[in-house]
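Hello Y.,

Per our agreement to keep a running log of every chain we model this quarter, I'm adding this entry. I've kept the format consistent with earlier entries: sequence first, then predicted structure.
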Amino acid sequence: MLTPEEIDALIEPMQPLIDDLNTFILKDIVHRLMARLRHGDPFKLSQSDIWQIELLREANAHYEAVQAKLAKWTGKADREIAYIFEDAGITAWNADRAIYEKAGKKTLPINQLPRMVQIMQDTMQRTYGTFHNLTRTTAHSSQQRFIRILDAAHMKTVTGATSYQEAVRQAVDELCKTQLTITYGDAPNGQFVYHKDTIEVATLRAVRTGTAQACGNISLQGMIDNDHDIIQVSGHLGARYGDGGHNPSNHFWWQAKLYSRTGKTEGLPNFDVCGYGSGEGLCGWNCRHSFGPGVIGFNPYEKFDSEENKEAYDLSQKQRALERKIRHDKADLVGRDTALKDCPAGEKEVYQADYDKSLALLKKHMKQYDDFCKSHNLKKQYDRLENAKYSRLMRSGKS
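Predicted structure for the entry above:
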């Protein structure tokens, strides 16, 4: 069984990879947009049919660039996912082994148990499928975004709504302020569900959920092999409470308790009430809970007051929202820097002002984050605020 902290730590290596892809896509679009301005090729000088041909050519070039990036990026991500699953499986099984060994049962390391290895590999392959499904939509989504934003700039120019230079600036502004979203689907409990998310949210959900399910399946197999009926579910302060009812969506209700795997142990509720295997329940979407063999009379997980838990959960959601805002600010700044470097000399002052505003907004949000954490006695999660491209930008002296 993994602790909530171990589950969080396992997926942290994915964040730099996601940042790398997001900033590549943003920089490539901004660079292509600014190249038209730098080469003095105003939209208003192109007839509509010529514009469409040129736009599609650039959109296809962007699509191919993102596809090439994805080919390399997916390979790195696949290797990282494999490491995550391996670490998770070993850690979870070793925790379970300690309980069996204490009860006098002999166990083997996971790499000597073919059935356990197969369970981990099967779940990992399903996670790869979900992950590759969402990445396949990335290049197309980015291409369509490119076409939409440039078409809007073209329309503003040909109708006289704004100058060519201002249309380009507004296009850069929208690209930097709005994140690329992708639409994809998965079926964690046999029912196909569509999601529309950023690449970051979609990737982390897929990896966290897949890892939790792999460890859960390993623990269940271990209990079957060792004829163990009692299940211990982990607990943590700030568990989601869903609609507040006694159902799988209310993680606070079922966390930190003992359950019967088969229903044979008197006095214990059946494990099914936790909703294991469903998207909303135990080890479902973004769940930080896990489970393993339990012992009657021993529960290492603290029970929390419902109001205390609700307050902690709500604060954690606000903290995560501030962290996402800061990460987006940093990506925004990288896009602004690209536009500033690529714009014509006569436009430098305008793009520098946009860059400075973006930097000021980041500093404002960083202060809000610091004040929020301090006022609520929360630990600052600096690893969630990192962005590799932003860090290199700051080290270069651009501030």
